[in-house]
Write a structure and sequence with these properties.
The chain has 231 residues and is of the alpha+beta class. The protein contains six helices and eight strands; from the N terminus they run αββββαβαβαββαα. The two termini are 15 Å apart. Keywords: Lyase, Metal-binding.
Length: 231
């Protein structure tokens, strides 16, 4: 993916980030100001840059001017360009964008069902074929690390190596996409799958789809949907 494909930092993009963040609350994926949302944007000289929700501000109070911008300098260091301090998880977003060039948007939630599964230090196994929407045969769980740290960034990027979404142990969910709608939809689907999985755990033995079937589903998902439309 080349830099010119990234959207320009505009009021429209900033507004879409706010809309996505507010949708996390209306869809009950978050409460008040938990979680965070970001999107890549175009930067001068091909530098990596992204817009992200600011730290500790209720989403209903946000304006486009409040959205923080973070840019990687030629030295490899990151510069917070304000106007407000970025989310405490900006390092996590930066690490995902660095390690996965195809990702253009990130949605991080504390959705209750998926977070409950993460507190078991367990991922979501292939009990349902829709688990393959993650891009893998199961949704992994990144090992716990303190929020806002490089250790958490390393843990999550490791879990995302072969998929588009992961649980974060004792924390929440991180979903990626080629755009904000796709990342948000994946976070919603993950919460739905986690809810079903928790119900199954209460019933006893969970029957899983075999590896060869999940491989077939993954192959079919590669051509699923409308050509040319970004997820």
């Amino acid at each position: 993916m080349i830099q010119t494909e990234f959207p320009v930092d505009t009021e429209v993009l900033r507004s879409r980030i706010i809309e996505t963040a507010r949708s996390m609350n209306t869809q009950r994926l978050n409460v008040n100001k938990s979680g965070n949302v970001s999107a890549r944007c175009r930067a001068e000289g091909g530098a990596l840059a992204f817009l992200i929700t600011p730290s500790g501000v209720p989403y209903d109070d946000l304006t486009p001017e409040d959205i923080s911008r973070v840019t990687r300098l030629p030295t490899g260091e990151w510069r917070d360009e304000g106007p407000l301090l970025p989310s405490s998880e900006w390092r996590l977003h930066a690490a995902v964008y660095e390690s996965k060039p195809e990702v253009r948007a990130i949605v991080h939630t504390h959705s209750p069902k998926a977070t409950a599964v993460s507190c078991l230090e367990s991922g979501i196994p292939p009990f349902h074929y829709m688990v393959a929407m993650s891009g893998a045969a199961e949704i992994p769980c990144a090992p716990y690390a303190t929020f806002g740290t490089e250790a958490l960034a390393e843990s999550v990027t490791g879990a995302l190596r072969h998929c588009r979404v992961c649980l974060m142990a004792h924390h929440g969910v991180l979903a990626t996409g080629s755009g904000l709608p796709g990342a948000f939809a994946l976070a919603v689907e993950t919460e739905n799958l986690a809810s079903m999985y928790l119900d199954l755990l209460q019933l006893g033995d969970v029957r899983l789809l075999p590896e060869d079937e999940m491989a077939r589903v993954l192959e079919r998902f590669r051509t699923y949907g409308q050509p040319g439309r970004k997820a």
